[in-house]
Design brief:
With 436 residues, this protein is α+β, with helices and mostly antiparallel strands. Helices cover 31% and strands 27% of the residues. It has helices at 10-20, 51-60, 71-75, 78-89, 101-108, 110-119, 135-144, 168-180, 248-268, 302-305, 313-322, 399-410, 426-435, and strands at residues 3-7, 28-32, 42-43, 65-68, 95-96, 127-130, 149-153, 162-165, 191-194, 200-209, 213-221, 224-226, 230-233, 238-241, 274-284, 287-294, 336-343, 358-359, 369-372, 375-378, 381-384, 388-396, 413-414. Strands 16-15-10-11-14-17-22-19 form an eight-stranded antiparallel beta sheet, sandwiched between helices. Bound molecules: adenosine monophosphate (AMP) and glycine.
């Protein structure tokens, strides 16, 4: 099986790393990839949203499976495009391990996903959605809620379209700015206002072949730039898998109340889901509520979920393609995985690129995986090429043991302006200690 991965982050390096070890994968390509993916396969200079070029590459390289990492190509319809293009050129079908545009709307539109959850009785925060046509009703709705106020741009806003505000007046101004002044561009022309959920967040990952589905794992990510969850939001500064409170009882509720009605609901609506579903949940006193759906794997969650997988990841993709998901028994290593992200100075704001990265290979702990994100290699010189630069994932018998190894690995890496959070997993350790 020949595979082409789309994307260039740590998630895509984790895919490539797992597929490189697969017994069923022959050739592996990554577009555009990074310096880490180049060690696992061949990088191609292609943009994931240039569908025509991606299709040509699939034909030229005899690709069997296309695995999109980020949401953008999925929401823009890469699965539909590849299916149509395969039919019209009469060659073999390129299987896309990701949903159709119709199914990807679960991530592409918050208004759509909230309405879907309501239709199928899936637990989520109470909400209403507003646009230019009913803006004044939005003001009235805000008045009925208790602070903090949660306002979400309907469309994709690179993870920045959610505002959580304590002050009613501020919330009302923000609503006006989103709808009338284009604060988040077209993505914010419609705004979902919802009830604030109190609890601890957790992400659950599932895979589906359009008929059957399986849970791949759980993870917690750390979105804020600063220790103790302070400062602006980022793409993710670290992750832990599994999450200690996601025990059998909790996961059973997630399966029965959320995953089953989600996959069944999509089927009933004629839009079966093929690919990876990432459900962002709030654990409210032991009951899961959906905060958001994503139609792909998370980053950096993939960097802790995939290396724990005991299955051959290539075989999982094969079974997804064959529609035989129910035959797979997902198995995970016992150890906990902790991933810590190294970022460029200034991230998530402006940051420099091209800083030389120095890795003292012999000081890296055994078993730690150094996933690349924003890196590039020019003639053997490794340098920074993005905000998130690397993810150090380690394994241990506890969160503490795994985190200790990741931080030990970080001590062996250096680049100008390097920044990271020093508290990944600490909240979960404290939580486990208090509940014992
Ligand atoms: P989203 O893009 O919908 O995942 O929202 C971004 C972040 O905002 C989430 O990861 C939560 O931390 C927070 N958030 C979103 N919706 C809610 C809510 N209803 N209650 C509490 N926190 C929320
Ligand atoms: N880490 C959050 C995401 O991938 O959306």
């Amino acid at each position: 099986m020949n595979v082409l991965i789309l994307g260039s982050g740590g998630r895509e390096h984790a895919f490539a790393y797992a597929l490189r070890q697969s017994k069923v994968v022959d050739k592996l390509f990554i577009a555009p990839g990074n310096a880490g993916t180049a060690l696992c396969g061949t990088n191609l200079p292609l943009a994931p949203t240039d569908f025509a070029a991606v299709f040509r590459a699939c034909r030229d390289l005899d690709i069997d499976v296309l695995l999109p990492g980020p949401e953008d190509p999925l929401v823009k319809g890469i699965s539909d495009y590849m299916a149509d293009a395969s039919i019209s050129d009469g060659g073999k079908a390129v299987f896309v391990a990701g949903p159709s545009a119709a199914a990807a709307k679960l991530e592409g539109s918050k208004d759509h996903s909230k309405a879907f959850m309501y239709r199928h009785g899936i637990p989520t925060a109470a909400y209403q959605s507003f646009g230019k046509d009913n803006l004044s009703e939005g003001e009235t709705f805000l008045n009925t809620l208790r602070p903090p106020y949660v306002l979400k741009a309907d469309g994709l806003a690179a993870g920045k379209g959610v505002l959580i505000l304590d002050d009613l007046q501020e919330a009302s101004v923000a609503l006006d700015e989103m709808i009338l002044s284009g604060r988040f561009g077209a993505a914010g022309e419609r705004v979902v206002i919802e009830e604030f959920l109190h609890g601890i967040e957790i992400s659950v990952f599932a895979i589906s072949d359009g008929k059957n589905w399986q849970v791949l794992g759980s993870a917690k990510d750390y979105k804020r730039i600063g220790d103790g969850d302070t400062g602006p939001n980022t793409g993710g500064m670290g992750a832990v898998s599994p999450v200690p409170f996601a025990n059998d009882t909790f996961m059973q509720k997630v399966k029965e109340r959320i995953l089953e009605p989600t996959f069944r609901g999509l089927q009933q609506e004629g839009i079966p889901f093929t690919g990876f579903l990432f459900v962002g949940l709030m654990n409210c006193g032991g009951d899961p509520y959906v905060i958001e759906y994503n139609v792909r794997m998370g980053d950096p969650e993939t960097e802790v979920v995939l290396p724990r997988l005991a299955n051959d990841f290539g075989e999982i993709l094969q079974m997804m393609q064959a529609g035989r998901m129910e035959e797979i028994q997902i198995r995970s290593r016992q150890e906990t995985a902790v991933g810590v992200v190294l970022v460029s100075g200034g991230y998530p704001g402006d940051y420099p690129k091209g800083k030389a990265i120095n890795i003292q290979q012999d000081a890296l702990p055994e078993g730690t995986i150094c996933y690349h994100a924003g890196t590039s290699d020019s003639n053997g010189t490794l340098s920074t090429a993005g905000g998130r630069v690397m993810v150090l994932s380690s394994f241990g018998s506890s969160i503490e043991a795994a985190a200790t190894l990741s931080y030990k690995a970080i001590a062996a890496i250096r680049f100008d302006g390097m920044n990271y959070r020093s508290d990944i997993g600490k909240d979960l350790i404290a939580l486990t200690n208090t509940s014992e």
